[in-house]
Specification:
Blueprint: H1 9-22, H2 30-49, H3 57-68, H4 76-79, H5 82-89, H6 97-107, H7 111-114
Length: 117
């Protein structure tokens, strides 16, 4: 087993080729262990090379609203008034720490998404 750190695109392509060769390996075998190591190395390299940033707070809230079938009026429990909800979506109102906490706990939106706005 010749495993090496992934430092560049060439190493990355070779690692992907190794994963492809080992894809049918069984768990708890030398090949299965090699597959696990390669996948871990590739995941680490991809996280560094192709980071995915958190969505803007407006997009995160809209996404959760769509998932849960919520309307603007449903958000008044977090913002206080429909006017504040509309002002937020119009980009005229920033989220307060209190509102961020309410949205995080009430709608289970990651904090990283709520502070990115």
């Amino acid at each position: 087993m010749n495993i090496f750190p992934i430092k560049n695109d060439s190493d990355y392509q070779m690692a992907l080729a190794e994963i492809d060769k080992l894809m049918d390996a069984e768990i708890n075998t030398p090949e299965g262990d090699a597959l696990d190591i390669w996948v871990t190395l590739v995941e680490s390299y991809e996280a560094k090379q192709f980071p995915i940033s958190a969505p803007h707070s407006i997009n995160a809230i809209k996404f959760r609203m769509e998932q849960q079938g919520l309307g603007l009026n449903d958000l008044t429990v977090y913002f206080g008034t429909i006017e504040k909800v509309k002002a937020f979506f119009d980009g005229k109102l920033q989220l307060t720490l209190k509102t961020i906490k309410k949205l995080h706990h009430g709608l289970n939106i990651p904090l990283e998404s709520l502070i990115n706005g």
